[in-house]
Design brief:
108 residues; flat
Length: 108
């Protein structure tokens, strides 16, 4: 699949935000495949925020509030996704997983 963002047409000095939409995950998966893909993705996100939290504590002596909230949210999502995958396993379902990522360039 082709991305919907054309880097060639982006002027370097543009003031208007540009956006891109990319397909991250798209397909039907057996439960073990869905578990591999989704839990790996969530674990990577969790690791990112745990590291961000650690660095914040080292530098500033306090945890990163946003990362703390994201960790809590990601852990809840992980639990719910695992529950759904276990249900699919038990009852013979496959899982349709679709995830797009939208990126917008904004002036710093």
């Amino acid at each position: 699949m082709k991305a919907t963002f054309d880097f060639e047409t982006l002027p370097a000095d543009t003031a208007a935000p540009k956006e891109g939409k990319f397909v991250l995950i798209h397909g039907q998966f057996i439960p073990t495949e869905a578990m591999d893909v989704l839990v790996t993705l969530l674990n990577n996100k969790l690791h990112y925020h745990e590291l961000k939290n650690f660095l914040s504590e080292e530098r500033f002596g306090r945890k990163n509030k946003f990362s703390e909230e994201r960790i809590e949210s990601l852990l809840q999502s992980k639990k719910e996704i695992i529950d759904m995958i276990e249900f699919a396993t038990q009852y013979g379902y496959r899982l349709q997983v679709d995830s797009d990522i939208k990126i917008k360039l904004v002036k710093a």
